[in-house]
C-alpha cells in the first residue's frame, strides 16, 4: 500500500513538473518583446547582430498563432537595422503561408487588392497610434517619417505586393516590412480571408 501511494505521488510530481516546465518554455509575445528590448545593436558586432536576429526570428516562429497575433513589429527598433538586416529578418520569420498568400493575393481583382491594402494601412496606423501618442494622419510615425512612403505605396498598387517582395532589393523588403507584417496579422486573425472574395 505504501509503495502504491509512493508511486502515485511520484507520477503526480512528474506530471506537475512537466506542466511547469512546459509553461515556462512556451514562447509568448511578451517573451519575444522582452528579448527584443534586451538587444542593444550598437554594442554588437555584425556577426553577433546576425545571430541575435536569427534567435529573434526563431522565437517569433515558435509563437502559437494566438501569441503571434499579439506580437507586432516595433518600427522604432526595426529602423535601427541595416537594410540587409531588415531583409534577412523578414525572410527568416515570414512563414511560407504568407508567401503563398501574397501569390494568391495577386490573383484577386485590382479593386479587391486596393481595398485590402487600404485596410492593412488603416490597421497599421491603428497599431502605431496605440504605441505612439501622436501619430500623423498619413501612414507615418510620430517623427514624420512615413511608415510606407508615397512612392512605395504607388509601386505596391501598380506592381503588386508579391512582385515587389520577391523581386525587391533588401531596402525594398525592409520598407515593405510593416505592411507585410500587418497583412500577416490580418491573415492569422481571420480578418483577411485569402480564399474568399
Overview of the structural elements:
The protein is mainly α and 197 residues long. The chain has a domain of 118 residues. The protein contains 11 helices and no strands. Helix 3 packs parallel to helix 6, helix 6 runs parallel beside helix 11 and helix 8 packs across helix 11. It is elongated, with a radius of gyration of 21 Å. About 7% of the residues have low confidence.
Overall form: elongated
User: Biggest sheet: strands, sense, closure?
Assistant: none
Strand fraction: under 5%
| Distance, first to last CA | 66 Å
Count every beta strand, where a strand is a DSSP E run of 2 or more residues: 0
> Over the alpha carbons, how many angstroms does the gyration radius reach?
21 Å
SSE succession: HHHHHHHHHHH
**Tally of separate helices:** 11
As a percent range, the share of helical residues equals over 70%
Q: Would you tell me the structural class of the helices and strands?
A: mainly alpha
How much is the average pLDDT?
75
* Low-confidence residue ranges: 132-144
Quick structural overview:
The protein has 197 residues and is mainly alpha-helical. The chain is built from 11 helices and no strands.
Topology, pairings included?
Elements: H1 2-25, H2 29-38, H3 46-61, H4 65-70, H5 75-78, H6 83-93, H7 96-106, H8 110-131, H9 150-159, H10 161-167, H11 170-189
Helix pairs in contact: 3-6, 6-11, 8-11, 9-10
Keywords:
197 residues, mainly alpha
